Amino acid sequence: MSGVDEKAVDEPSPERLALTLARLKAEAVAAGLTDGVVIGCDSVLEMDGRAYGKPDSAAEAEARWRDMRNRTGRLLTGHCLIDVATGRQAAETASTVVRLGSPSDEEIAAYVASGEPLRVAGAFTLDGLGGWFVEGIEGDHGNVLGISLPLVRRLLAEIGVSVTALWRL
Question: Which of 5, 10, 35, 42 is catalytic?
Answer without folding.
Answer: 42
